Amino acid sequence: xxxxxxxxxxxxxxxxxxxxxxxxxxxxxxxxxxxxxxxxxxxxxxxxxxxxxxxxxxxxxxx
Length: 63
Fold this sequence. Notes:
Strand content: under 5%
Number of helices: 3
Structural class: mainly alpha
Oligomer: single chain
Shape: globular
Helix content: 40-55%
Distance between the termini: 38 Å
Largest sheet: none
GO molecular function: DNA binding
């Protein structure tokens, strides 16, 4: 039986975008760092298919 990966939230999407934009980490490394989120979900976030309206964590428009 496969384990369930964590659900994506706007906060997690913001963290994914921050890591993607501010580090040299690839999508698989980000997935592993954030607790085993599926790499496909990381791809959806960084390519704007999910949570497109959420800015990266730490940006002035991120509350």
